[in-house]
Sequence to fold (428 residues):
Amino acid sequence: MARNNKLLLATETRKEKVILVGTIRPGVMRESVEDMLEELANLATSAGAEVHSTVFQGLIKPDPAYFIGKGKAGEIAKLIEGTGVDTIIFDDELSPAQTRNLEKMTNRKIVDRTGLILEIFAQNARTKEAKTQVELAQLQYFLPRLTRQWTHLERQIGGIGVRGGMGETQLEVDRRLIRTRIKKLKIDLDLIEKQRSERRARRKNIFKATLVGYTNAGKSTLFNAAADAGVLVEDRLFATLDSTVRRIELNGYNTILLADTVGFIRKLPHSLVASFRSTLGVVQEADLLIHVVDISNSEYDEQIEAVNRVLKELDVHKIPIIHVFNKVDLVEDQSILDAAGRFYPEGVFISAERSIGIAGLFEKITEIVSENFVTREFNILLTESKIISRIFEAGDVIEQDYDGKYTRMKVKLSKEEAFRIENMLSRG
Ligand SMILES: Nc1nc2c(ncn2[C@@H]2O[C@H](COP(=O)(O)OP(=O)(O)OP(=O)(O)O)[C@@H](O)[C@H]2O)c(=O)[nH]1
Ligand SMILES: [Mg+2]
Fold:
């Protein structure tokens, strides 16, 4: 369904022309609004649109009916007359009523930041999991915004639900269809999540590191450099929507699982974070988060903050985190690197694309792995078969030999598991 009701109607022959609208609120610097709008332009381009122009409006308080006010809305309608602009994109989230009113007034399609991000996610979803997650987020977003232009949804959704009584309007039918579809998607996602958590349980004894970071920071590039993986790398926002996990050897001895995953952005729609629960599971189950930062971006500080906000929403503040400053090859001013180094003493500086600093990063991860994992020797009575199989589950058995009634096992395992097994042995 999401595919058939695309927000942006870019075709191969003609790109959808858009105009961007940003608001300057009291206490907010114009420059930071300009940066946000530049990012919005990036989002629009990533979605396949062509940006015609940008409009700013000072705004003390949003107008409940027209957001920027009826007068300004009229001005914009005049401004775009004869320009071929198809769509007006707002940097802020609009209420369903504001969207409808603005649409009527300007006779153009109205899209807000959330809708635009959802659209890019829909375009980039490849796997069943990502597609299901995006469609769920999109439908939840569209449901209250449904207008009469959305007719005959039932054909697109495909035979779900039957037409209601004669008195029911098309709009009501459509709403009902969407609700039914949402329910179905939630059930699908629960199933996908179950399968995922089974897979997860099987690899719980290997150290897991997950790449997180702002979109376009270079996570996939680093992932490829580290895992020799060939994951899609593109200079567009949200190139990656799925989590990919690879086993990598840090230095012959320490094997870890490294995961690449979806990027974050400022004002990431809450519904997306919620729908991407199963993809973002690799963030929550990590033993270490590797926060990749594009140090060549003048806004990298704000981007770190935005990522931290999403991490907070995911409730992962207890997981250790290291900051990896990427794209150093693009930074000419050494003082920028120095400043970041002072602020993040544990930080590692790399260029994923030029393979600079990767060995140093591996060393750093190795350090953290060895802080978490220990090598222990256990002497166990052969009759303690429960404990023996537990040890095999809990870690890497490096050596095992037998001595009469005993077996000696040398095993590498997490500190936590070592503690548990020691407890089992002292009780036994
Ligand atoms: N100059 C330079 N460019 C880099 C470096 N690392 C990545 N890039 C470029 O940055 C862009 C984004 O890289 P990706 O690896 O796709 O970024 P990502 O963080 O995975 O992005 P999303 O999946 O969209 O969240 C690509 O054009 C890369 O070629 C680097 O070290 N130096
Ligand atoms: Mg990526």
User: Anything to note?
Assistant: The CA atoms of residues 130 and 369 lie 31 Å apart.
